[in-house]
Structures are given as structure tokens and as C-alpha cells.
């Protein structure tokens, strides 16, 4: 079994360069199918999620050329066949293929998507969007069979600002006849990244990044070039690392406004953070003040940074309160942090973090992607050695995490045990 072994307490200094966004890439890669000629997507991170999606594209018959930081996709030879369950189960984002195959061929059969065990993660809003555009959705055991003789633009009212449903509805609406309006759309930067890609192909989307998105359907979409935005969750994770054990640590190639809420909260704690046009410099700061954090959709505090920031809360003098409003089961990291010496209580949708506590290395498990990130951060801070098992989820979301951390002074390695 592969584990991550970290010797804690070392100072991190120098520069860490942020990669392309996982959550953008996993939507952009399936979206390439909509084009009628070759597309190039740059700044694609080399993580197992993007590998899994490239494998699905290849299975469907697209020509895929993977370079180190980009992917060239010729979708002209795609055939509409069912994606095997073992492929689509690997990640939640496989359901973006449902949208693009429906838009392109008017029919799709697909297994329920996979994803981290942080909650039920229903996709009812995605199906609501498809149905609003004229699709007929049937469930058969654990797969969907979706038909749309013709897709017609409609007014789609999302019951909550779902990122996936916003993107999925957009992916289908670009090929529907007439105009589609998505109300209560999610505003995450990844949605803007996808809309820009589609508009580069010739789509007519306005309002991405706001709660009302308008899409005028078009007949054809041409191949083009697009770039993945920097990963704001990787950015936030390494900014937190700097606040824990950094010395003038520079997190480079970022869009600071995408992590604005994290930076504001860290300033409230008393962390020394310097914000540049495309970087942040941060140092370990003693005597941090406790804060209250509530996760929300963008531009609120990102739920994906909830588990990583918990490590920083254990270093604040006093009681911090963190409320998770997006997922119902995203505190699986807490028992492991408590085993390392933190003092955290789970009270319903909230955790109460009593700091400041010293952390000691021990064996822990990455129960999901961002819980794993939290435990890596805890290992960097803790005295002694921290061994993290089940590291697959961590490698899904953080490109070259061992190399990047080693380069700035961490002692971290993947071991076979
Ligand atoms: C995206 O997931 C991200 N994943 C998640 O990041 C992120 O946590 C989430 O957005 C919120 O920001 C990708 O982009 C691949 P949602 P998604 O649809 O699209 C409810 C990570 O760590 N909901 O906004 O699945 C349900 O409670 C991952 O990188 C419904 O009830 O998020 C769900 O948990 C984790 N019905 C919550 O909203 C629906 O149809 C958020 O869902 C859809 C959502």
C-alpha cells in the first residue's frame, strides 16, 4: 500500500507555483466533445482526475494528445457509446459527459457519477436542467437513460446554486434551439472558465459568474484554444501551509480574488499575508486570534478549504467556530486531527476548535480529497512523523504535491508499505 510520510516542524520557504484548476479541467475536458474540430486546452494539471477523463475521451474514440501541461483533443471521431461503470465511477465529474453526449447526439446512457464520500451529492438539479431543455430522463437500476429528440431553450430555476448543475445546463443549452436563462446559477470561477471556453468555440453565453446566465443556442461549435485558470483550492491549501510553517513563502501564479475570503479570514486571525497581482507571500505567525467561518458558494468561504483551514484554527488562541453549510458529511478529518492532539468538537453542522494545541505525528487516513489535504498540512506542522494512508484521493487533486512541497523545504515522500 502507498502512504505519504511527512516529518513535521520544518520551515517552508521559497516559491510554490500553482497548477491549473482541477474543478475547471474536469469540466473543460468533456466540453471539448461539443466542438466540431480540434481543441487545445492549456495549463491542465497532471492529476488522476484528468487522466481518468482523458481515458474516457479515448474510449469514446476521440483523438487525445496529452503533453505535460496541455491536452489536444480531436473530437471528430467520437462515437456515442455507454461509458463503463468502472470508468465513470472514478469521479463525480464524469457526469459532464452526460451533458455533452446529450447535447451532441440527443441520447446518452450513463452510470451514476462517483465522487468523494462527503455527502449524498444528488444530481437532481442537473436532471432538472436537462428536463427543462426537453430531455426525458429515465433511471434504470444505477444508470440514467436520457433522450432529447430536440433541445429547446428554456428558463431554468435552480433550487440551489449548484456548480455541477450550472455547468451541465450550460453544456446542453449551447446546442438547444433559442435562448436559455439559468436563474440562481452558481458563481464559481470554474463556471466562467467553462463559459469562456464555449464562447471561444462560438457559443453565445453571457452572465457567467453571476446568478443569471443567458445562453443562445448555436448550430455549430468550432475547435479553439483555451486555458485552465489557476486552482483556487490548491492556492488556498498552500497559503494555509505558509501560515502554519512558512517563512516568506510565495504562492505564485494565482488569481488573488479567487481566494479573497480565505485571505480576509487569515488577516482577521492576525496572519501576515502580502497580496501581489498574481501571488501571495505568507509567513508563520504566532498568537493567532480565533475566528468564525461559515462555508458558502463563491464568493463566500469555499467548502473545499474548510478541512484545510481547520488545521490553522487549531493554532488560534481560543475557540473558533466553523460551520459547513454545503455538505452533510465533511468532518471526517476531525477525529484524525484529535488523534494528533487537537481539541475539536463536532456539534451538528459546526465544529468548535479549541486552540492553541500542539500536534504530534501519528498514522492517519485520507478519507476524502480535502481531508487528505488537511492531514498533509497537519503533518507539516506536527512534531515527529505523520503517516497518511489511502493517499489516492490526495493525488486526485494536487498536482506533484510531493515535489512541490519538497522543493520548498518539506520532508515528505510516498512510501510503499
Ligand atoms: C463542485 O462539486 C466541486 N467539484 C466540489 O469540489 C465543490 O465542493 C462543489 O462544487 C461546491 O463548490 C467539482 O467541480 C468537480 P454542487 P458539485 O453541485 O458540482 C447539493 C473538491 O474537493 N446539490 O454545487 O458536485 C448537494 O448537497 C470537490 O474539489 C443538490 O442537492 O457541487 C451537494 O453536496 C468536492 N442537488 C451541494 O449541493 C444537486 O443537483 C453542492 O453541490 C446538486 C447539488
What does this molecule look like?
- The chain has 417 residues and is of the alpha+beta class.
- It has 2 domains: 2-19 and 230-416, UDP-n-acetylglucosamine1-carboxyvinyl-transferase, Chain (Alpha-beta prism), CATH 3.65.10; 22-227, Enolpyruvate transferase domain (UDP-n-acetylglucosamine1-carboxyvinyl-transferase, Chain), CATH 3.65.10.10.
- The chain has helices at 22-31, 48-59, 85-88, 95-105, 124-132, 163-173, 189-201, 232-245, 260-269, 306-313, 334-339, 369-381, 392-397, 401-407, and strands at 2-7, 15-17, 39-42, 63-66, 70-74, 107-111, 136-140, 143-147, 155-157, 179-183, 204-206, 212-216, 225-227, 249-252, 272-275, 279-283, 292-294, 318-323, 344-347, 350-355, 363-365, 385-389, 411-416.
- It is globular.
- Bound molecules: ligand EPZ.
- Ligand EPZ binds at residues 22-23, 26, 92-93, 116, 119, 121-126, 160, 162-165, 186, 188, 233, 303-304, 326-327, 369-370, 397.
Q: Notable features of this structure?
A:
14 helices, 417 residues, alpha+beta, 4-stranded mixed beta sheet, UDP-n-acetylglucosamine1-carboxyvinyl-transferase, Chain, globular
Present the secondary structure layout.
Blueprint: E1 2-7, E2 15-17, H1 22-31, E3 39-42, H2 48-59, E4 63-66, E5 70-74, H3 85-88, H4 95-105, E6 107-111, H5 124-132, E7 136-140, E8 143-147, E9 155-157, H6 163-173, E10 179-183, H7 189-201, E11 204-206, E12 212-216, E13 225-227, H8 232-245, E14 249-252, H9 260-269, E15 272-275, E16 279-283, E17 292-294, H10 306-313, E18 318-323, H11 334-339, E19 344-347, E20 350-355, E21 363-365, H12 369-381, E22 385-389, H13 392-397, H14 401-407, E23 411-416
Parallel strand pairs: 2-14, 3-13, 9-10, 17-18, 21-22
Antiparallel strand pairs: 1-22, 1-23, 3-5, 4-5, 6-8, 7-8, 10-12, 11-12, 14-16, 15-16, 18-20, 19-20
Helix pairs in contact: 1-2, 1-7, 4-6, 5-6, 6-7, 8-10, 8-12, 10-12
The protein binds ligand EPZ.
